[in-house]
Structures are given as structure tokens and as C-alpha cells.
Amino acid sequence: MTNDPISDFLTRLRNACAAGHKSAEIPHSKMKNELARILKEEGYIRDAVSEGAVPSQSIRVHLKYDVDLVPVIRGLRRISKPGLRQYCDSDTIPRVLGGIGVAIISTSQGVMTDKAARKQGIGGEILCEIW
């Protein structure tokens, strides 16, 4: 059991990319499933598949590499932590590397990217940044 499952998710992805693995296995939760969905939509991973039965279900994240076997995910950073939550209004949503990266935000309308939150005009908790 981990105290911060989102940090665990990001760390497993970071370590798998650094080791050159084709996929990473992550314990399943609704939040991690949403994070994986957003990563797939934004093109940072190839696929994310739920595996196994309900008590021990996991998510298999298939990583994406370019032609030179360099990971597409260059960096991951957890912003809002259990000890210090970070919230933002629709006006103060951060731009990651001037718009090159993506901030993932948990809003009242669900988990979405910074661009989608700006478009809908809603703020929320800034979960992480990916570039």
C-alpha cells in the first residue's frame, strides 16, 4: 500500500522509460485509469489495458519510443501532493514548457488536460505535469 498512488504511478512510468521497458504494470484504480487514458489521448503512451480480476486488477501501460529508442515521455512531475495540495482557477492554469507539455487537472467535471480545462473555463487540483 502506498500513501500517494499517483506518485507511485508516475514513478513506475519514469523507471520503466529509463530502463527501456516496453510496458509497465501498475495497480488499478479509477484515477490511474483516467491518467493512463489522458496519456494515451495526448500521445505519450501507445496503449493502456486493464488486466486481471477485480481484487488484484492492474493496468498494463505500453510505452512509446521514437526511432532512436528515446522515450516519448521526457519528464514527469507530481505537483499536488498529499501534504500540500495545489489548486488553480481557470485563469491561473499553468502552461507546461510554454504549451509543449501537458498539465493534468482534476476538476469537478472529471480528470482532464490543462487545455480542456481552459476551454471549459474551470479550475481544479493540478495533479501532475508531463512533457
Q: What topology does this entry show?
A:
Layout: H1 5-19, E1 23-27, H2 30-41, E2 45-51, E3 58-63, E4 76-78, E5 87-88, E6 102-107, E7 110-113, H3 114-120, E8 124-130
Antiparallel strand pairs: 1-3, 2-3, 4-8, 5-8, 6-7, 6-8
Structure description:
- There is one protein chain.
- The chain has two domains: 5-63, Ribosomal Protein S8, Chain: A, domain 1; 76-130, Dna Ligase, domain 1 (2-Layer Sandwich).
- It is built from three helices and eight strands, in the order H-E-H-E-E-E-E-E-E-H-E.
- It has helices spanning 5-19, 30-41, 114-120, and strands spanning 23-27, 45-51, 58-63, 76-78, 87-88, 102-107, 110-113, 124-130.
- Strand 6 (102-107) and strand 7 (110-113) form a beta hairpin.
- The longest helix is centred in the N-terminal third of the chain and has 15 residues, at 5-19.
- The radius of gyration is 15 Å and the shape is globular.
